[in-house]
Specification:
Largest sheet: 8 strands, parallel
Distance between the termini: 29 Å
Structural class: alpha/beta
Number of domains: 1
CATH architecture: Alpha-Beta Barrel
Shape: globular
Radius of gyration: 18 Å
Number of helices: 10
Order of helices and strands: EHHEHEHEHEHEHEHEHH
Bound molecules: zinc ion
Number of strands: 8
Mean pLDDT: 92
Length: about 300
């Protein structure tokens, strides 16, 4: 989710001392399918507080943001995270913590990307996935012809693709992303893409929230489609998230839902997101493990820890 929230609340930044050391050593492994790295970000300039908790922002550089995010991952035993845009920052995160990072190339505007660069990065063994594709912010639908070369490339290289479909910051079309349209949140807009590229390994980020019926329809008709729970597991009201998640599970898709935090500039949102899954009383322990870990192992073809 792209949220350049301009908060006027500039809170005093306290030292980023980690909260009381909770022993998380016994936690089972988690994979986070949706994390962001940045070279710079205007939210850092404005020290935008966590929109849910009001907690002051503490990491306001690439380095400190990376360190705080890696520390949060360690705390919750997140053994791998799919990290996207900015790509050069992603590569530096990867160098800093090679075992924990799946480097992904994300973009917003499909007309200004260099496909030859992506091929080279993949050939060099650096680029492992495409996404987050945020074309919705540019008013571009998943089935727009401009998107076609990327889907074709991902299918050819057999790399996973994560596409933003769904929510953003409320009111974003009036400031940060004038071309963003909620109408493009319809997951069924992916249908022709799937037909054209039957081998593509694609996951719908944010599980297409709030388009639940359309999401169920797409997953039912196209059994290869996965989703992630990015941002909806901490930023939308918890009850609403659980209603949404429960329906996807009860419709039979519990093995195609992957945990994602959509950590943007608030590293603590990883823990908040984990809590969103763990607090779902309607899930069995096995279903929680599937969402938090097993499904991503299968989708990203990882070795089990
Ligand atoms: Zn997103």
């Amino acid at each position: 989710m792209k949220t350049r929230i301009l908060s006027l609340i500039l809170l005093t930044v306290f030292a980023s001392a980690a909260p009381a050391q909770k022993n998380e050593q016994n936690r089972p492994p988690i994979i986070d399918a949706h994390v962001h790295a940045f070279e710079k970000d205007e939210r850092w300039t404005h020290k935008v507080a966590n929109p849910l908790t009001g907690q002051p922002m503490t990491a306001t550089t690439e380095q400190s943001h990376m360190q705080a995010t890696l520390a949060e991952m360690k705390k919750y035993n997140v053994v791998k995270a799919v990290i996207s845009n900015d790509y050069q920052a992603v590569l530096r995160w990867k160098a800093a913590s090679p075992d924990h990072i799946i480097a992904s190339y994300g973009f917003y505007d499909p007309s200004s990307q260099d496909l030859a660069f992506l091929r080279r990065e993949h050939a060099a063994g650096r680029l492992m996935a495409l996404g987050e594709i945020g074309a919705q912010y540019e008013g571009i639908a998943p089935n727009d012809p401009k998107m076609e070369p990327y889907f074709a490339l991902a299918e050819e290289l057999d790399i996973p693709v994560g596409i933003h479909i769904g929510l953003s910051k409320p009111g974003i079309a009036y400031d940060d992303a004038p071309k963003y349209r909620a109408a493009l949140s319809n997951p069924l807009l992916l249908e022709e893409v799937l037909i054209r590229h039957p081998k593509i390994r694609i996951y719908v980020m944010h599980a297409g929230w709030p388009m639940l019926d359309q999401m169920v329809g797409l997953m039912w008709a196209h059994p290869q489609v996965y989703v992630d729970t990015g941002v909806i597991d901490w930023a939308v009201p918890r009850k609403e998230f659980h209603v949404y998640l429960r329906r996807l599970v009860e419709a039979g898709f519990g093995e195609r839902i992957m945990f994602g935090s959509d950590q943007m500039v608030w590293p603590e949102t990883i823990g908040m997101a984990v809590e969103g899954i763990e607090s779902a009383a309607f899930l069995t322990e096995q279903q929680k493990r599937d969402i938090l870990y097993n499904n991503a192992v299968r989708f990203f073809r990882l070795d089990k820890k």
